[in-house]
Amino acid sequence: MKKLIILSFALLAFNLNFAQEVTKSKTKPKFGLKGGLNIANAITSGEDSPNGKTLIGLNVGLLLEVKINNKFSFQPELLYSLQGMKFDEVVDTGDGIFKTNNTLKFSYINVPLMFKHYPNNKFYLEAGPQIGFLTSATLETSVVGQPIKIEQDFKEFMKSVDFGVNLGLGYDISDSVVISARYNLGLTNALDISSDDDSMLKNRVFSFSLGYKFK
After folding, report:
1. Residue range 152-196, pLDDT digits in tens
2. Is 146 helix (H, G, I), strand (E, B) or coil?
3. Closest listed residue to residue 59, CA positions, set 183, 156, 161, 143
4. CA atoms within 13 A on the CB side of 17
5. What is the CB neighbour count within 10 angstroms for residue 141?
6. What is this structure's pTM?
7. Distance (Å, rounded) from C-alpha 207 to C-alpha 150?
8. CB-based burial of residue 10 (10 Å sphere; 0-12 exposed, 13-18 middle, 19+ buried)?
9. 166 close to 180: Cβ distance less than 8 angstroms
10. Distance from the CA of 28 to the CA of which of 54, 81, 104, 155 falls in 20 to 30 A?
């Protein structure tokens, strides 16, 4: 975990240095806060892989917008993101067959590196890579029709780092307030499995956020 924290700060330090170089004699970088709603799911494959349903989560964190010119800017972020998926499963215990409702919850510290293009002064398009550091993962299971609920630590089955790419758009309501929508496409298998296991899980997240940039 210490290595992940060190890597996060190293990425932020790089971004800050980049911002200082790009913005010499240009617009001052703007720090900000943002937060909003995640509509998360996952693509799965492999033997007995479940069909995922959406899970509602949240995102909250920090941003730094660096204006390159009137049309382009670079925006690194540091975000806490709750994502995952829901799925139903029928379990045969030998003593009976039970229908279960299951929820996989993943907590990530994500570092998106977004490049933004402004066709006009307000509206923008964005794209960029993202690295995510897993902080926790749980599997919650409840048995339909019975007062049984089990929560298990799922982190040992997950990779500690996830890579993806983001596409999005947004609108600057004012010099300080911005609304945005973004889609995160996980590129790597988030499961930590053996080489002979073909199971796969890739994160998918729609996020909607409200941000505030300090002047």
Report:
1. 999 999 999 999 999 999 999 999 999 999 999 999 999 998 777
2. coil
3. 183
4. 6
5. 16
6. 0.84
7. 28
8. exposed
9. no
10. 81
Which positions ≥6 away from 196 have C-beta within 8 Å? Answer: none
Which amino acid belongs to residue 104? L
Distances (CA, A) of 116 to 68, 147, 206: 10, 49, 18
Instruction: Read off φ and ψ for residue 94, nearest 5 degrees.
Output: 95, -30
d(CA 156, CA 7): 21
What the block records as the tokens of 151 is 């929560």
Amino acid at site 113? L
Residues β-bridged to residue 78: 62
In the chain, at which residue ranges do the beta strands (DSSP E only) sit?
A: 30-45, 55-67, 72-92, 97-117, 123-143, 149-153, 161-172, 177-186, 200-213
Residue for token pair 């993101």: 81
**Which phi-psi region, left, alpha or beta, contains residue 21 (left: φ > 0; alpha: ψ -120 to 50)?**
alpha
